Amino acid sequence: MRILLVGCSGFVGRALVPQLLAAGHQLVLISRSSAPLAAVQSPQLQRLQADPAQAATWQLPAVQEALATSEAVINLAGEPIAEKRWSDAHRALLTSSRIHTTRALVAAMQALPEGQRPQTLISGSAIGYYGTSETGRFSETSPAGSDFLAGLCQAWEKEAEAASSFARVVILRIGIVLGADGGALGKMLPVFRTGFGGPIGNGQQWMSWITRHDLCRLIGEALSKTAYQGTYNAVAPAPCSMVNFAAALGQALGRPSLLPVPAPILQLLLGDGAKVVLEGQQVLPERLQQQGFVFEDAELSAALARATT
């Protein structure tokens, strides 16, 4: 399959691109920076240097040609949520990098002649769609939350769903992605390896997670199986509390995990962005299980063993 990838040069893309190439797909990558994938050399991989957040990107002849010759589009563009304080400017960047990019992408797809449009769009979202709760359990049919992240995810998904009139649309509400070289786990590992790790905040917040390995497998399966359509919670079936996650991580590393990280420290560093780590939600992958998707990393201990070795 010939696939256009948007925003796939980061943490997930570093694993997704080699996997798709190994499966025999032809890839065109659009990103502001191809540096994380510079080592990937393949005649099946083409890089188009462009900022997917800029509407003008989608008017470039090379991008239009790539869209017109692609059978599928994977859209994972988006500024990282929990790496900076949420100033007004950063909130605007979080919004534009998701909503404006997806809107412009769908518009560019729709502008193509009917026979040239990609037939599949896989687009990212996040479990922040549901808001946060220590007691609630959320499936794909649960209502959206009311905080900033929930509103951002709703608007993001709406832009992707606009393509459903001419393409098969799959929206993945992605949880905490586990991998040693990035994401939340990548930041926690150096501290835990020194023996100074522990639960963040009160430790009772839920962590709904998925290994990067299983997320990439899911994207590959959603590409090849047309039964996938609509919205899915991209999380493993075993959400856990932060205190249990910290204990399991310490055990996987053979290190103690008793020293809690006080919430005020994170709030000082990240402001509102700290709520992604300090608050959480128990999210279940009901539709994936109904679809028959088999998680290779379904249990936390096995997932951490893979992610930390």
- N→C terminal distance: 32 Å
Q: Unreliable segments (pLDDT under 50, ≥5 consecutive)? A: none
CATH top level label of the domain at 2-177 and 211-234: Alpha Beta
| H/I helix tally | 11
Rg estimate, integer Å? 19 Å
How many individual β-strands? Answer: 13
Classify the fold: give the CATH topology of the domain at 2-177 and 211-234: Rossmann fold
Explained architecture:
The structure is a single chain. The chain has 309 residues and is an alpha/beta fold. It contains 11 helices and 13 strands. The protein has a domain at 2-177 and 211-234: NAD(P)-binding Rossmann-like Domain (Rossmann fold). The protein has a 7-stranded parallel beta sheet, sandwiched between helices. Strands 6-13 form a two-stranded parallel ribbon. Helix 1 links the parallel strand 1 (2-6) and strand 2. Helix 1 (13-22) crosses helix 6 and helix 3 (88-111) packs parallel to helix 4 (148-161). It is globular, with a radius of gyration of 19 Å. The two termini are 32 Å apart.
